[in-house]
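#lab-general

N.A. 3:47 PM
ok so I finally got the sequence cleaned up, no stray characters, all 266 residues accounted for. can someone with queue access submit it? mine expired

B.Y. 3:52 PM
send it over

N.A. 3:53 PM
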Amino acid sequence: MAVAQEQHIVVSVEGAIAWIRLNRPDKRNAIGTQTRAELAAALKQVEKDDTVRVVVLTGEGTAFSSGADLRDFPSDGGNAVEHVGHILRDDYMPMILRMRQMPKPIIAAVNGVAAGIGMSFAMAADVRIASETADFRELFVGIGLIPDGGATWFLPRLVGAGKALELCMTGQPLSAVDAERFGLVNQVVAADQLEPTVRALAERLAAGPPLAIAGAKRAINRALDCTLADAMEYESYLQEAMAATDDFAEGVTAFIQKRPPQFQGK
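B.Y. 4:20 PM
back already:
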């Protein structure tokens, strides 16, 4: 009898919230070939699911993700070069870009260590809430590599160039408390409060206007690489589109009637 393959990624949809859980707790949620394939499929699944308004990415056990599974790495030098290029361009890049371009907000619930590519996935989320037991580690320098998975783009924008260089050049861990202080995470909570805190935020976002939330994500991402004038022009374009939606009409009506709005994403 064939043995069923263990799922490295588990997806559960609760109402309008999709939870994507890295499910290799015995390996500290290290990311290997199977994990990459399942995570790519999970991200595609929740993006296409019209019932899902918010996505949460987290890890099972005591780690968010310890990074790439080095046991999945060829020991031969020539093959290693080809392997690295394939993984970065064909696997990680599409996933990270999907996370940034997905119109749905993504929350990273960082329940433990987020290292290497695991840290990159956390940074690719829109909001990061961390357990007080979590820490962040750019460990690439320890094996003679540079940070990847978009880390060199995300990190200086979140913590500043100086701190980003320090973390990348030393591999020194950054505690959850310091990560909040430097702006890498939005909030740090007690370990037993991580899931309730994330759930409360996810429910709040799920009750919000999906089109306006998606528009804000698009506008802020675009503003990271454009002038003030360009950003304001793009705001004007999006705001005209938002003003034509049923959600805008519902929001104004609800405000006047002093009742909670019921947004439909239309």
